[in-house]
Write a structure and sequence with these properties.
EC number: 3.5.99.2
CATH architecture: Up-down Bundle
GO biological process, one term: thiamine biosynthetic process
Shape: globular
CATH superfamily: Heme oxygenase-like
Keywords: Hydrolase, Thiamine biosynthesis
Bound molecules: 5-(aminomethyl)-2-methylpyrimidin-4-amine
Low-confidence stretches: none
Largest sheet: none
Helix content: over 70%
Number of helices: 12
GO molecular function, one term: thiaminase activity
Protein name: Aminopyrimidine aminohydrolase
Strand content: under 5%
Order of helices and strands: HHHHHHHHHHHH
């Protein structure tokens, strides 16, 4: 069977599937490459080089800062209080607990915060910011597709690695735990339900645009992990 090339075609081929499962199908093989990237497996096995994680953490701190801005757009555009609260609560977590993780990790890895702030923004980090921010400015569905992709991908590998023997290094443990705890699982399930509803109500053009944004995000997730090794 050939791969469907559009959201409409994939939905027609599988009318019973959740719309969000269709987004993943249309993003293969990049989705599996992102969720199964060697970075995630080495992190779980505690074999990831601290140098690679340090490079990744500096860029990811920038990514998360941009993600907090995307959440601002989504709070403004969300259709009701339940969705606004979900984004606001996640933004509060990113800007406190998760931000503290980065600062602690820089300290553990001997990276001065001023040194991290001076490091050049990698082209993949820049591409992520361009994609996510312009998507969220264009529409709720496209911004939500970017957020869902980022968080669902991290949940997928986080839950897988959390089921294995715990790594010894604090930053490896904490980065896995943050993406596998029950609160994060229910956050991502809430995002999926919101995206399912939003896609069902969207115009065909918006459905295709959201599917393209989700797929481009999965490609960038792979490139972002790759970049930490170079
Ligand atoms: C690049 C990337 N993608 C997703 C996540 C999960 N918030 C992250 N921290 N960094």
């Amino acid at each position: 069977m050939s791969m469907p090339s559009s959201y409409a075609e994939a939905r027609a081929a599988e009318p019973g599937a959740r719309p969000t499962d269709i987004l993943v199908r249309l993003s293969q093989p990049h989705w599996d490459a992102a969720c199964g990237h060697r970075f995630t497996r080495e992190l779980g096995a505690d074999t990831l080089s601290a140098e690679v994680f340090g490079r990744y953490a500096v860029q990811d701190h920038l990514f998360v800062t941009d993600l907090a801005s995307v959440l601002g757009h989504l709070i403004a555009r969300a259709p009701g209080m339940t969705a606004k609260h979900r984004f606001a609560a996640f933004a509060a977590m990113l800007t406190s607990e998760e931000n503290d993780f980065f600062l602690r990790t820089f300290d553990q890895l001997g990276i001065e915060p001023q040194e991290a702030a001076r490091m050049p923004v990698h082209e993949v980090t820049r591409a992520f910011a361009g994609l996510m921010l312009s998507a969220a400015e264009r529409s709720y569905a496209q911004g939500l597709a970017c957020l869902l992709c980022a968080e669902w991908c991290y949940l997928t590998w986080g839950v897988r690695e959390a089921a294995e023997v715990r790594p010894r290094r604090a930053w490896a443990q904490e980065w896995i735990d943050l993406h596998a705890v029950p609160a994060f699982r229910s956050f991502v399930e809430g995002l999926r339900e919101e995206m399912d509803r939003t896609l069902d109500a969207a115009t065909p053009e918006e459905q295709e645009a959201a599917a393209r944004a989700f797929r481009r995000m999965t490609e960038l997730e792979v490139e972002f992990f790759d970049a930490a090794y170079s």
